[in-house]
Write a structure and sequence with these properties.
Layout lengths: L1 E10 L2 E11 L4 E5 L6 H9 L5 E9 L2 E2 L5 H6 L2 E4 L6 E5 H15 L7 H14 L10 E2 L5 H15 L3 E5 L7 H14 L5 E5 L13 E6 L2 E6 L1 H10 L2 H8 L1
Parallel strand pairs: 3-10, 3-11, 6-9, 9-10
Antiparallel strand pairs: 1-2, 1-4, 4-5, 7-8, 11-12
Helix pairs in contact: 3-5, 5-6
C-alpha cells in the first residue's frame, strides 16, 4: 500500500530525514518510535504532504502511484489520513458540518455526487455508536473547549467517517490519561481491516499494549536503524534508546 524509498527531507535547509525505506502492506500496523528530534513527526508530515517540508530525494508511493507532487488535500482524497498531535480549534464549525464537508470534497475529487443526507446521517449514527460518542458532541464547534481526550476521540471519529486507506496517528497518546488512551485505542482497533493500514508514531510503549503493531521501527538521526516486533517496544521501554544509539555507532 505504501512504499517509501530512500526518502530525504528537510525544513528550512536543515536535513531531517536522511534515507528512509518503509513498506506498509494492507492490514498492517506499523509503530514508529525514537528519541526526540529523530524525525518521527517529520516523517508523518512528509507522507501527509505538509508544505513546509522539502523532499530532497526519494519517493513516496501509495497504491502504486507516486504522490510526491500532490498537495495535502489531494493525498487526503486518495486515502491518506493524519491524526494530529495537537488538533486545532475551529470555532463556529460543528463537528458534523466539518465531517460532511470533508466527505463530500473527497467524493467530488472521485467524480461522485455529494452523499445523500439520509445516508450521511446513517453513517454518522453508525460510527458514533461504534466509538461510543455522545451525539451532542457532534453539534459542538470543532475541538473548541474539548479536553485532550475529546480532541483525540474526535480525530478517530473523523478517521471512522472518512475510511482512509492509510491512517497516520502522530503521537495520538500525547497528553491522554489511561482511560482516554483506552477509548482512542479501542476506536482504532475497531476500524482496522484487511483493506487499510495504520502507522502509529509514539514515544511510549503503553499505547502499543492497546494497539498491537505488526512491526516496530526505531528512528534515529533521520533513519530507521532497527526494526522488530512488539517485543522491541518493550525492550525500549525497559532500556531506553541509548543501547540502540550505541549499536548504530559501533
Amino acid at each position: 500500500m505504501l512504499k517509501i524509498k530512500n526518502l530525504h527531507a528537510s525544513v528550512e535547509d536543515k536535513a531531517i530525514l536522511k534515507g528512509i525505506d518503509l513498506h506498509v502492506r494492507p492490514g498492517e500496523v506499523h509503530a514508529i518510535m525514537g528519541p526526540n528530534g529523530s524525525g518521527k513527526s517529520t516523517l508523518a508530515s512528509v507522507i501527509a504532504g505538509k508544505e513546509e517540508y522539502e523532499v530532497d530525494e526519494g519517493e513516496i508511493i501509495l497504491d502504486g502511484e507516486n504522490i510526491d507532487e500532490l498537495g495535502p488535500e489531494e493525498r487526503a482524497h486518495k486515502g491518506v489520513f493524519m491524526s494530529f498531535q495537537y488538533p486545532v480549534e475551529i470555532p463556529g464549525v460543528s463537528v458534523t458540518n466539518f465531517i460532511k464537508t470533508a466527505i463530500n470534497e473527497t467524493r467530488k475529487a472521485q467524480g461522485l455526487e455529494d452523499m445523500p443526507a439520509n445516508e450521511m446521517l446513517k453513517l454518522i449514527r453508525e460510527k458514533s455508536e461504534l466509538l461510543d460518542i455522545d451525539r451532542k458532541f457532534l453539534s459542538r464547534s470543532l475541538n473548541e473547549g474539548f479536553s485532550g481526550g475529546e480532541k483525540k476521540r474526535n480525530e478517530i471519529f473523523q478517521m471512522a467517517m472518512l475510511e482512509p486507506k492509510l491512517a497516520i496517528l502522530d503521537e495520538t497518546d500525547s497528553g491522554l490519561d489511561i482511560d482516554a488512551l483506552r477509548i482512542v485505542a479501542n476506536g482504532v482497533n475497531k476500524l482496522k481491516s484487511e483493506d487499510n493500514a495504520v502507522i502509529v508514531i509514539t514515544h511510549y510503549q503503553r499505547l502499543l499494549d492497546y494497539i498491537v503493531p505488526d512491526f516496530v521501527h526505531v528512528l534515529h538521526n533521520g533513519r530507521i536503524v532497527k526494526t522488530g516486533t512488539k517485543d522491541l517496544a518493550h525492550e525500549l521501554e525497559a532500556k531506553g534508546y541509548d543501547w540502540v544509539k550505541e549499536e548504530v555507532n559501533a
